[in-house]
Amino acid sequence: MEKINFKNKGETGANPINANNLNLMQDNAENAINENKPSVITVGLNSNIEITGNTPIQLDKILSNAGNKFTLQNGGIKIGAGVSKIKVSGCLLEEVNPAGLYGCYICKNEINLAHAINIGFNYIPVVNQMVKTTCQPILVDVQEGDVIYLNAYANQSSFTATLQTYNGRTVNVTIEEVIE
């Protein structure tokens, strides 16, 4: 940002109010705003998949993206340079069979439940039900190169479910950069 250093009329080195200086002020303000815009990405799943037990979900569809600090990589969302904190949430819609405990969890770098940073579960008492499970938004400290993953969960390894995508909108993760 270029400083203009206005001075009172008549002072030595006074800068006049003219189009060039006003345009410079406008450019400075616009650049400052653009530098502080957070990046946001929502990534989903392109087609329905069958899951059994705990299943890492290979997210493969960018639903929306603003900014350039997040990328889709190997089924997860990679954190770019300059990001130290994010707000992350996720959800999935699954048709479950049989009755039991189903859910989703979000992990950073590792894709197992022991490393979950966010968890949502539902107990389903009857078979063949459609269930939407949500991981509510939370703040997470991150660094460049971290990868965020979404996983489906069933409390028995023999339990099965079908993740229903509806064009990617019902199985997704949203990450928003938090500017401190």
Can you walk through the features of this model?
- With 180 residues, this protein is mainly β.
- 9% of the residues lie in helices and 49% in strands.
- It contains 1 helix and 13 strands.
- The protein has one helix at residues 19-35; strands spanning 40-44, 49-52, 55-57, 61-66, 70-73, 76-79, 85-97, 100-108, 116-124, 129-141, 147-154, 160-163, 172-177.
- Strands 1, 2, 4, 7, 10, 12 and 13 form a 7-stranded antiparallel β-sheet that branches.
- A hairpin with a 7-residue loop joins strand 8 and strand 9.
- The chain is elongated, with a radius of gyration of 23 Å.
- It starts with 18 loop residues before the first helix and ends with a strand.
- 27% of the residues are buried.
Structural class: mainly beta
Overall pLDDT, averaged?
A: 84
Q: Considering DSSP H and I runs of 4 or more, what fraction of the residues is helical?
A: under 10%
What is the helix/strand order?
HEEEEEEEEEEEEE
| Fraction in beta strands | over 45%
What is the CA-CA span between the terminal residues? 20 Å
Cα Rg = 23 Å
Identify low-pLDDT runs. none
- Discrete helix count: 1
Q: What characteristic shape results from the CA principal axes?
A: elongated
Please summarize the sheet with the most strands: 7 strands, antiparallel
Report the strand count. 13
Short description:
By secondary structure, the protein is mainly beta. It is built from one helix and 13 strands; from the N terminus they run αβββββββββββββ.
